[in-house]
Amino acid sequence: MTEKETRTRQPNGASSIYLGKDGKWHGRVTVGVRDDGKPDRRHVERKTKAEVTKAVRELEKQRDSGTVRKPGKPWTVKMWLSHWIENIAKPSVSENSYDGYEVAVRVHLIPGLGAHRIDRLEPEHLERFYRKMQDRGSKPATAHQAHRTMRTALGEAVRRGHITVNPAEIAKAPRLEEDEIEPYTVDEVQSLLLEAAKRPNSARWVLALGLGLRQGEALGLKWEDVDLEAGYIRTRKNRLRPKYAHGCGDTCGRKPGYCPERRQIRRETKPTKSRAGRRTIGLPDELVKLLCKHKEAQDRQRNEAADGWSEKGYVFTKPDGEPLIPNTDYHEWKKLLADAGVRDGRLHDARHTAGTVLLLLGVPDRIVDAIMGWEPGGAARMRARYMHVTDPMLKRVAKQVGNALWGAPDDGDSPEQGPDEGD
User: Fold this and answer.
1) Residue 308 carries which DSSP code?
2) Structural domains in the chain?
3) Fewer Cβ close by (within 10 Å): the C or N end of the chain?
4) Strand partners, 196
5) Contact 218, 201 (CB under 8 A)
6) How does pLDDT run across 183-212, given as a tens digit for each residue?
7) What is the structure's pLDDT at 3?
């Protein structure tokens, strides 16, 4: 059979299948129009007519469903991630999100997967890579961050037609085991507050332990967001980690953050990322009094600093009026724990403690959600994550069960059951 006999004229735009001079079967499928206006006609070749027919039908199916990969040189993982992180992610995500993505791309994903073509990347490639990361000493959370970054980056590649399936959506993510978090007891909180009272910005720790403010919310708080007469604060801004560039032309031989002439290249704060985060919180009378004293102390500090004071309106500041740096604040928390003789814990554990206190006090769920700044859709999950069953609660429930089963006399310690709590 000759090529002429096997390659008959097809209508414009129709697929064709023919036997070539090389002895292989070829198929051509028009899948759309290229950027220059010419037909985008794809070519496949196989050893048998049945195989090429199957390939042609699959390409037609992709064309009809709109999932055909765009024409041009295929992207490698390195090429795509480098393009995505700088040209797509950087202009559109927050500074903190970008930092997380950039580290995952530069430190892990490009060195480990960069040579793969994105249209040939398989879920198994990713799963083996995550295991290798952990075998080399990376924490599960680090491998999970790499997975989330790859899933986001390849999701954008799918949306733009560079690939048809996102393998990171199929790959099993590294398993994350949440650490068991034990909130601080009342005695521990009191010890922390007694020690904090000896330090500048002591109210900063009361806001964390009593109202559950996140670090960025507390450090980004300004006096314009505080109404001491009405007794409330508004959380509207988050403090960002500083980022510096050389001011010496990169001649000092140090990292940008240690350059004697360093320049700040990141804004100090950003708006809270959700409507629930922009919230109004009522202040206990004791905290109002503490903030009033804090304001008076700051006024004295401003007068003493004179021209050396940078007036930016922050509630919690360094001695020159500049906002506190998150990293410095973190180390201050660790020092506070040690000096108070309280067990070590994350700064975020103060927020867990506040959630537990609200639960113990029986505060209604919707009020808890408003105080903690949780979105309505995920509030129940967040309550389960942040609020912990403590010993007093277990004892109270055990007493209630004993009363119900054995008729033990009520000594008045158990709370009175409301009319809608019988179930």
Assistant:
1) G
2) 3-65 (no CATH), 77-170 (1.10.150.130), 186-236+272-354 (1.10.443.10), 390-423 (no CATH)
3) C
4) none
5) no
6) 787 788 889 989 999 999 999 998 888 888
7) 45
